Amino acid sequence: MSSDMTLLLIKSLGQTLYMVSISMIIAAVIGIPLGILLVTTAKGQILECIAFNRIIAGLVNAVRSIPFIILMVAIIPFTRSIVGTSIGTTAAMVPLTLAAIPFIGRQVENSIKEVPYGLIEAALSLGATPLQIIKHVLLPEALSSIISQLTTVVIGLIGASAMAGTIGGGGVGDLAIRYGYQRFRPDIMLITVIILVVVVQLVQFIGNYIAARLNKK
Which residue ranges traverse the bilayer (predicted)? Predict the structure, then answer.
């Protein structure tokens, strides 16, 4: 493999990491509070508001039901209005972020539901406010599980970022399409697959390590 192709591989990997990192950060900032609201506004919970809960749950389910490749194409006008273009690494982050937010919300919801309700009742009996319960009970107790769930989301985003290459999203997926598939270079296809596998394994290892360190059980 030529030095030019090696540099292109490095550049593409950097684009993938950039896309996934920024998308994940933005999605987590929105998705984690969303997951908390999905739990705390449900019936019998500390911020019970059934109508609001049904609305946000419906929106989450609606977005999650859209296949990523369709979502990318469907929101092209929105992407162009946000970043000024629908092609490239930065543009690909818009659908990646939108796809990740409801996924994170549901994953965080599942993690928080694992917290024994007895801990919440104990905090309520001590006069804790809903915000204090979220901050000092729910999040600390569910943190290890949340990290594990977020690791799964990151891995999903890596696969989605590769899919974004089909519409010129940049990254390893774009390289595989343009230089591997379209130019009939199976060696390039193989290398891109190996790179993605290594990145996924590394992310999973780091996620498992952090989750294990935070696990209080």
Answer: 16-39, 51-76, 82-103, 146-167, 188-211
